[in-house]
Write a structure and sequence with these properties.
The complex is a heterodimer of chains A (about 300) and B (about 350). Chain A has about 300 residues and is mainly α. Chain A is about 75% helix and about 0% strand. In chain A, helix 2 packs antiparallel against helix 6, helix 6 runs antiparallel to helix 10 and helix 8 packs across helix 9. The longest helix of chain A has about 30 residues. Chain B has two domains: about 220 residues, Rossmann fold; about 70 residues, 2-Layer Sandwich (Alpha-Beta Plaits). Chain B contains twelve helices and 14 strands. The N and C termini of chain B lie far apart (about 50 Å). Classes of the chains: A mainly alpha (about 300), B alpha/beta (about 350).
Chain lengths: ~300, ~350
């Protein structure tokens, strides 16, 4: 008796089965689901509220100085004229594009969630290697690229769902959407998350593709997570950063994902900038997904 | 044409440019047989199996699995083999049923076919009752049965088993052998298995190869290997210690060697069970009284020790291999192995 072969096999067979395997670990484990949602909420609630930047300006009391030889009423006039220009809302809008820092950063948290979720896809391939599941999968006719893409899609799908939850909570906690916002814009947000998630998780998988050590992956994650976050506009606008840092933020894809998200939710949409954002994200995702798949042909087998 | 199911030619794998794990190994596995691959830890068993299942690339040499070249036709090879790795690869967070369907999906088997096969296989390994339970709750024996079922979902032509009973207790091990026999009877595939339990090889395998330091030392049926040690050992004691009857015994056909120690004679014979009565008759015919008699057949253990030496193995296994083995043994004993999800 011979093993009957499935000749009419579709090259993507197994992709959804493998992706669903990963997703099941998440949605069938309420504890894990809870933790992965609560973490960005804690960040958003604590960071977004403690960094109450507008309070720095509003709690400032200006005393009118005594200048000898000058009429105090003139001094008071000058000071009042200046301080009326020193308008909190205007300063905030100049810097953050919105008068409310919480709105600014809660949208940035969407990028943060995507970054932290995609990071674990590298870890998960190391676990599969160490526990033998990877070898088992490699001994079946499933495409090597499908093994990699299942990790990518798992991370992307989780990121999108988490982003939706985060935005929902942000609305409850006081996110003020821009005048241009319609629920349809959310599709654009999810598209941005999809692209940045694909690129980032492909990078982390590529780094982990031959690794057998969890410890190395943890070190890689710890090395990259905060630098990637801080060299982007997720928490602070690029314009407020020192000159040397600005060019770095321009090549950090998180900047583009965050900008696209902010435009779609908070700002009046600048179509040209939005197209640039999506073009950058598309190229980023395409390049690194391709790199990941090519590496998987060569390096998943050892 | 009854081609060999597996033909291995000079298969070699060198790690990090100097560690020769498998060194020009050649052998054939015949259609329909159970072929055992024996050797101490670190001998190169798993490295060989990983190359044959196309998970590891050979440095040199090659092999043909079901007529397909492992390097050039790896996709065809993967379709015609089934693999049960040393590790428990079933996903702990999923149920047995979800795991077996996942395996089927990896082979691209359509759902209607795979569900029928999965039912049938789970019935054979008596796991139907537990199929909707999470694998994390399974015992070692249950996990092994699930792995066997998963490995057969594509109706493989050649079935690879890497240490199928590692870490299991004696009862579960015996039960696992029975499942392997049953599955073999039901599906009639060729089986290639590695093990370091010798009684396992003796019970199950039609032929075995002993591998050590990456080289094949000997290949043959368990019987022939035992014979190669020089046959059975018969010990006879007679009442009168003063006389020497070695000459009488030596004249009996198929007696190969006689050693006298006081009134006891240690006799190496071929076909001990048939020769022993003849020897007894010869001794009695000379008027001697036999007081004690024993006949031992050499076990595969002795064959193994003869070929691989008696020194303990201390060579370092790779960190990774050692980790996997620890996890397997821990899970077999029902503990939570390495689960960190």
């Amino acid at each position: 008796m011979t093993g009957n072969r499935q000749n009419s096999r579709n090259p993507l067979h197994g992709l959804w089965a493998l992706t669903n395997r990963e997703l099941k670990k998440w949605y069938k484990n309420p504890y894990l689901l809870f933790l992965s949602i609560i973490q960005p909420l804690i960040w958003m609630g604590l960071f977004g509220r403690t960094m109450n930047i507008s309070a720095i300006f509003t709690n400032y009391q200006i005393t009118i100085p005594q200048i000898p030889g000058v009429d105090p009423s003139v001094v008071a006039q000058v000071v009042n004229a200046l301080s009326s220009q020193f308008n909190v809302t205007r300063i905030m809008e100049n810097t953050f594009g919105t008068s409310d820092y919480f709105s600014f950063m809660s949208v940035g948290i969407v990028s943060f969630v995507t970054l932290f979720t995609t990071m674990f896809s590298g870890m998960s391939i190391v676990w599969d290697r160490r526990l033998g599941f990877l070898n088992k999968a490699l001994s079946t006719p499933v495409a090597r690229g499908a093994i990699l893409m299942s990790k990518v899609f798992n991370a992307v799908i989780r990121s999108i769902i988490q982003a939706a939850i985060v935005l929902g909570f942000a609305l409850v906690l006081g996110l003020q959407v821009g005048a241009d916002f319609t629920p349809l814009n959310l599709l654009g947000v999810f598209a941005a998350v999809f692209l940045i998630g694909m690129g980032l998780s492909s990078i982390f998988i590529a780094i982990a593709i031959r690794s057998t050590r969890i410890e190395t992956q943890m070190a890689v994650m710890n090395l990259l997570n905060l630098p990637l976050l801080f060299t982007s506009n997720a928490l602070m606008p690029t314009s407020a950063m020192p000159d040397w840092l600005q060019p770095i933020t321009k090549i950090n894809p998180i900047t583009y994902a965050t900008d696209a998200t902010r435009q779609l939710i908070l700002y009046t949409i600048d179509m040209q900038q939005l197209l640039i954002d999506f073009a950058f994200l598309g190229v980023f995702a395409a390049i690194f997904t391709t790199v990941g798949i090519v590496l998987s042909w060569r390096y998943l087998s050892r | 044409m009854a081609e060999d199911a597996l033909i291995v030619n000079d298969l070699t794998r060198i790690f990090n440019k100097h560690l020769v794990a498998v060194d020009h190994v050649s052998f054939q596995v015949k259609e329909g047989e159970i072929f055992g691959f024996l050797g101490p830890n670190g001998a190169g068993k798993t490295t060989t199996i990983n190359m044959l299942i196309t998970v590891l690339r050979p440095t040199d040499g090659g092999a043909t699995v079901c007529g397909y070249d492992i390097a050039k036709q790896s996709s065809e090879v993967r379709s015609c083999i089934g693999v049960v790795p040393q590790e428990y690869t079933a996903d702990e967070d999923l149920t047995g049923w979800e795991n077996i369907l996942l395996c089927a999906d990896l082979y691209g088997i359509p759902r209607d076919v795979s569900q029928k096969r999965a039912e049938e296989l789970l019935t054979l390994v008596e796991m139907t009752k537990f199929k909707d339970k999470q694998v994390a709750t399974y015992s070692g024996g249950m996990r092994r049965r699930l792995e066997l079922a998963c490995g057969l979902i594509n109706r493989p032509h050649l079935f690879f088993l890497d240490e199928p009973t590692l870490g299991l207790d004696v009862q579960t091990r015996t039960a696992t052998w029975n499942y392997i026999r049953l599955l073999k009877k039901e599906y009639g595939m060729t089986i290639f298995m590695t093990t370091h339990y010798l009684e396992e090889a003796d019970m199950l395998c039609d032929r075995v190869a002993i591998i050590d330091h990456g080289k094949i030392i000997t290949v043959g049926t368990p019987e022939a290997l035992k014979e190669s040690l020089g046959g059975d050992i018969m010990t006879v004691s007679i009442q009168d210690g003063a006389v020497d009857i070695s000459g009488i015994i030596k004249k009996v056909p198929r007696v190969k060697e006689v050693k006298k120690q006081d009134s006891t004679y240690r006799i190496k014979v071929e076909d001990g069970e048939e020769t022993a009565p003849t020897i007894l008759d010869a001794i009695r015919a000379e008027g001697h009284k036999v007081t004690r008699l024993s006949l031992t057949r050499p076990t595969l253990d002795e064959v193994y020790l003869e070929y691989t030496g008696r020194s303990m193995r201390e060579e370092e296994e790779s960190r990774d291999a050692a980790f996997k083995q620890r996890v397997t043994v821990r899970r077999a004993r029902g503990g939570m192995g390495g689960g960190m999800h």
